[in-house]
Amino acid sequence: MLIDTTQLALERSISGAAQRQEALAANIANAATPGYRRVDVDFHGALAAVLGSSDARHTVEATGFTTQVDGTVGATQADGNSIDIDAESAKLAANALEQQAAVSVARTRNAILRAAMGVAS
Amino acid sequence: MSFFGGMEISATALTAQRLRMNVTAENLANAQTTRGPDGQPYRRKEVVLQAAPQQGAFGAQLSAALGSRGGVAPGGVQVAAINEDQTNGKLVYDPGHPDADAQGYVRMPNVDTVSEMVDLIDAQRTYEANVTAMQASKQMFAKTLEILR
Which of B47, B139, B140 to mutate to test the interface with A (most CBs of A within 10 A)? Predict the structure, then answer.
């Protein structure tokens, strides 16, 4: 098969990182909003779960990610806000790098495929 | 979910923080204003922020259809209201002042310049944090376009 499970998983993780970027951007945007609870996307967990299944190829392709309120952190500010801006900035930077790494790997795999097909890239 | 989503969310925060800076600047500018349009001393204004619902009917429908799957849809921040602080300012004894009362006291605005400066710095730093978030989103978008090349 031309597009294998790894390539599909890379595509889903690029998409998941984009969705997580939105969640983290919203957290930073609401750093001073009273009562705001942080949201996050666990796309790693969702992908890891389906990659272990027997029919990984088809389930990976259909994997969607959920943006959820993070209940594991308590309020860090007196007004009930649970945003730690330093932690959010660090997560945002890590997420952006992770997405760029996934893109690089996906791109290289495409280049290998093109070389094998004899198509000039 | 879209690639521009992250940038739009950060943009809502830039708008909100810029408004906060404008309101703080107005408070500072009127720190000595003893007579407003209603004849009363100036009252400090305060921006109330709230989490915004996801913007754009089409974008919301699309992400609902494409796999947000019941989770929350982050939509940035918006200004809920600009409230006036109703506490009274301090009384200053200045019988020569045109707004002095019969006993010679003037009611000053309830603006505390030190806390306004703190608000100003807070708004500025939050603005910068959101600019950084927006740049990260932009880099991700640019990197994704490289797949096509």
Answer: B140
- Name which of A17, A33, A93 is nearest B51 (Cβ-Cβ): A33
At A66, is the pLDDT very low, low, confident or very high (cuts 50, 70, 90)? confident
From start to end of B11-123, where are the E strands? 45-51, 77-84, 91-93, 105-107
Q: How many CB atoms lie within 10 A of CB B106?
A: 20
Whether B16 and chain A come into contact, CB under 8 Å, resolves to: yes
- Residue ranges covered by each domain of chain A: 5-116
Which residues are registered as beta bridge partners of B79? B49
Question: Three-state DSSP class for B73?
Answer: coil
Matching residue, tokens 């959820």: A68
Instruction: Write down the ipTM of this complex.
Output: 0.81
Do the chains contact at B10 and A14, CB–CB below 8 Å?
no
User: Tokens in use for B5?
Assistant: 């989503």
What is the C-alpha to C-alpha distance for residues A6 and A14, in angstroms, rounded to an integer? 12
Please state, in angstroms and rounded to a whole number, the distance separating the CA atoms of residues B48 and B26: 16
